[in-house]
């Protein structure tokens, strides 16, 4: 009787256990592919009772306004998370906590203004991040540690005016990036992005375009085609970065040559440096020569000035000495002239 009662209890609980992770009524679920599709259902929040084995969750075209702390704690194995085309304005720094296997994240077509540097902290497997069509003013440089494995980054159509150089340098595996549609300010603050683009494109990366929005005289000009001469005032603070890029590229070329040294027939032809990079190197050399000439001219002028001052001082001393001597001699002659009539009178 006890065994029979236990079996009855188990049979009664099984439906309840399955219901606890049933597919949300607003979504369609595929247990074989572990895909949950909740697109276009007018949702205001993340659906509950998602199966913990879910690997793909599609929530685009809804009305979700924010992501709270640990918003996806029920699906720790999710690999693809699409939240595009919602009304998201805020994301908690711990919204993605626990999603260590996340590979693709889309927050495109929302109203995000900023992202916390801790948002992607625990995630190291992310390879695709789409943040296009938002209102982002920038990305924190500290976020670069979480993006080292990123192969695609979408930042098109935001409010970016510059990019943090430390973030760009952390994207060592990036294959493509979209940057168009941002109000880039092409001044000294953007020279880092221009130099990074030179290196990135030389390595085979893909980018759409970076069109200047400010200042007015540079509007709609492609940053990649803007000559370095227009950044001349900034180059003195960026020479070390340029030479670091050149040194890095030369090191890679030598490394490739050493690797293929045992098989000359397989050695790949060295890719020609971009024209802008060659112009940058020429600008550095010419500027150094001009600065050297100016320094020599200033040194010559200083030597000439010192010599002229010394000669003039000597001349003034001699002139004063001659004047004093002439004054003494004049006094002697006057005394002699006074004595002569007196002597004649006595005689």
From TrEMBL:
InterPro entries: Cys-rich_flank_reg_C, Leu-rich_rpt, Leu-rich_rpt_typical-subtyp, LRR_dom_sf, LRRNT, SLRP. It holds the Pfam family LRR_8. Gene3D superfamilies: Ribonuclease Inhibitor. Its main location: membrane. Keywords: Cell membrane, Disulfide bond, Glycoprotein, Ion channel, Ion transport, Leucine-rich repeat, Membrane, Repeat, Signal, Transmembrane, Transmembrane helix, Transport. It is found in: Cell membrane. Residues 22-56 form the LRRNT domain. One of its GO terms (cellular component) is plasma membrane. It comes from Seriola lalandi dorsalis. This is Leucine rich repeats and transmembrane domains 1. The lineage of its organism: Eukaryota, Metazoa, Chordata, Craniata, Vertebrata.
